[in-house]
Amino acid sequence: MNPAPLSGLYAPSLSLLTDLYQVTMAYGYWRQGLQDREAVFHLYFRKAPFAGGYAVAAGLAYAVDFLQNLRFSDDDLSYLGSLPGAKGVPLFPQEFLEYLRNLKFTCDVDAIAEGTVVFGNEPLVRVQGPLLQAQLVETALLTLVNFQTLVATKAARIREAAGPDTVLEFGLRRAQGPDGGLSASRAAYLGGVDATSNVLAGQRFGIPVKGTHAHSWVMAFEDEPTAFAAYAQAFPDDSVFLVDTYDTLDGVRHAIKVARDMRARGHELGGIRLDSGDLAYLSREARALLNEAGFEKVRIVASNDLEENLITSLKQQGAQIDTWGIGTQLVTAYDQPALGGVYKLAALRKPDDSGWDFTIKLSEQLAKTSIPGILQVRRYETEKGQPRADMLYNVAEPLPAALTLIDPLDATRRRPVRPDAPYRELLAPIFRRGELVHALPSLAESRAHAQREVQSLDPSIRRFLNPHVYPVGLEESLHTFRTNLILEKRPQRPA
Ligand SMILES: Nc1ncnc2c1ncn2[C@@H]1O[C@H](COP(=O)(O)OP(=O)(O)OP(=O)(O)O)[C@@H](O)[C@H]1O
Ligand SMILES: O=P(O)(O)OC[C@H]1O[C@H](OP(=O)(O)OP(=O)(O)O)[C@H](O)[C@@H]1O
Ligand SMILES: O=C(O)c1cccnc1
């Protein structure tokens, strides 16, 4: 089941979830009669986030929901019609608004499945269709895919650090507003956390919901043992006590006392939570106290501004923590709050329909120069399914028999492709002529896919510190074409 992830969160129609310039360009194209010229855009980021070696694609289900519902309502049109230009005349004439009223999304969309590991320069989404439409959806696609890919990647890193431990996402209170919280909970689950404290995300996406209690629960009673006992009365088999309100190790002793009473009544304490102090030391001490008292199975949850590097360090210090509660750092992607995904025009059908004009955006930096063509990503893998290298190629041109990958940033770095190397193509058809042609996987399936994908990467690419750079190359004829196009477009100024 795939509930429409955006429904009810915002205005009845989300078609204005865009930058004004998409609408002004749409009007301009319409005036020029260019609205139906066939165009191809790619959505991609340039560099994996968090100085990491990979990203986990996410947000496609939101993008599909958005595109399926792309229609301008009467309210949308009257709002656009109310916008004044500088001289007080309406920015958009009525005839254009009538055009928008009848507009239906008719593009082809190909995309990389959520949960797939992806690298810089690889199109996560490719939109091909009438120029006006393909341009119009830029901003929404970027906002939907950039943030979730960022958070799913952060979650995958936290999962990597936590190993087999349980990871709970606790971020809603610190998230960037309601959808910052909701879509972060979704992306965090996709990227590998086990459960969320966010009840709306549980209801909407079927994510398991879990939690403990706050300090205020303890503060609302005369003392800590009374508070724990009261919580155990309410949840005799589902209690995790927060033990650090006054003194952590005294708190553990109080939890043990109440756990004994629970056991006498046939119930078991689920866990304790540490939320301050030296988590390595306190968790070791807590584990020793619990084990001595015969509570080996009581879990130790830790929270307090945790992230992947702290988890790694705490494990190295011998922390006895088996459940990690992660809020702020995960849902706000604290160390890199935005993924710089972009959406670039890469091909335009020639006016006489005789083929394609491939387009390029130049930049002073080669890293920011776009890649022309109608791109597919081919992932070469070992027989065991470990990714070895990715090749970007232009599906509109024939592929040569002998393939060579060329590093887009350094043409001297080349790799010939073994003719029999197994591969898979990452971009799959999602929409054809505006019709959804792909059965989206459930969130749980995408999460399982993400875990397999990240696990399949070599540890040198997964490590946090100076990860190995995964090879992504341009197919040689694409590289040559791009180089020539750069030379053709760049002004050659005399020395
Ligand atoms: N053994 C440890 N090694 C490294 N970092 C730790 C360790 N124990 C805790 N931390 C982290 O140190 C940071 C600060 O914790 P600190 O104990 O200084 O303040 P605090 O416990 O948050 O205080 P407060 O009582 O205000 O919550 C947190 O991010 C916490 O997760
Ligand atoms: O630290 P995070 O990763 O964001 O995890 C969520 C935090 O939210 C709760 O704290 P609370 O709102 O009570 O604030 P405080 O513990 O930071 O004082 C909880 O005790 C965690 O510390
Ligand atoms: O359930 C918890 O322990 C929890 C939930 C939200 C934020 N911090 C902790």
Automatic annotation (TrEMBL):
<dbReference type="InterPro" id="IPR040727">
    <property type="entry name" value="NAPRTase_N"/>
</dbReference>
<dbReference type="GO" id="GO:0004516">
    <property type="term" value="F:nicotinate phosphoribosyltransferase activity"/>
</dbReference>
<dbReference type="GO" id="GO:0005829">
    <property type="term" value="C:cytosol"/>
</dbReference>
<dbReference type="InterPro" id="IPR006405">
    <property type="entry name" value="Nic_PRibTrfase_pncB"/>
</dbReference>
<comment type="similarity">
    <text>Belongs to the NAPRTase family.</text>
</comment>
<dbReference type="GO" id="GO:0047280">
    <property type="term" value="F:nicotinamide phosphoribosyltransferase activity"/>
</dbReference>
<dbReference type="Pfam" id="PF17767">
    <property type="entry name" value="NAPRTase_N"/>
</dbReference>
<dbReference type="InterPro" id="IPR007229">
    <property type="entry name" value="Nic_PRibTrfase-Fam"/>
</dbReference>
<comment type="pathway">
    <text>Cofactor biosynthesis; NAD(+) biosynthesis; nicotinate D-ribonucleotide from nicotinate: step 1/1.</text>
</comment>
<keyword id="KW-0597">Phosphoprotein</keyword>
<keyword id="KW-0328">Glycosyltransferase</keyword>
<keyword id="KW-0808">Transferase</keyword>
<comment type="function">
    <text>Catalyzes the first step in the biosynthesis of NAD from nicotinic acid, the ATP-dependent synthesis of beta-nicotinate D-ribonucleotide from nicotinate and 5-phospho-D-ribose 1-phosphate.</text>
</comment>
<protein>
    <recommendedName>
        <fullName>Nicotinate phosphoribosyltransferase</fullName>
        <ecNumber>6.3.4.21</ecNumber>
    </recommendedName>
</protein>
<dbReference type="InterPro" id="IPR041619">
    <property type="entry name" value="NAPRTase_C"/>
</dbReference>
<feature type="domain" description="Nicotinate phosphoribosyltransferase N-terminal">
    <location>
        <begin position="16"/>
        <end position="146"/>
    </location>
</feature>
<dbReference type="Pfam" id="PF04095">
    <property type="entry name" value="NAPRTase"/>
</dbReference>
<feature type="domain" description="Nicotinate phosphoribosyltransferase C-terminal">
    <location>
        <begin position="377"/>
        <end position="481"/>
    </location>
</feature>
<keyword id="KW-0662">Pyridine nucleotide biosynthesis</keyword>
<dbReference type="InterPro" id="IPR036068">
    <property type="entry name" value="Nicotinate_pribotase-like_C"/>
</dbReference>
<dbReference type="InterPro" id="IPR041525">
    <property type="entry name" value="N/Namide_PRibTrfase"/>
</dbReference>
<dbReference type="Pfam" id="PF17956">
    <property type="entry name" value="NAPRTase_C"/>
</dbReference>
<keyword id="KW-0436">Ligase</keyword>
<feature type="domain" description="Nicotinate/nicotinamide phosphoribosyltransferase">
    <location>
        <begin position="168"/>
        <end position="347"/>
    </location>
</feature>
<dbReference type="GO" id="GO:0034355">
    <property type="term" value="P:NAD+ biosynthetic process via the salvage pathway"/>
</dbReference>
<dbReference type="InterPro" id="IPR013785">
    <property type="entry name" value="Aldolase_TIM"/>
</dbReference>
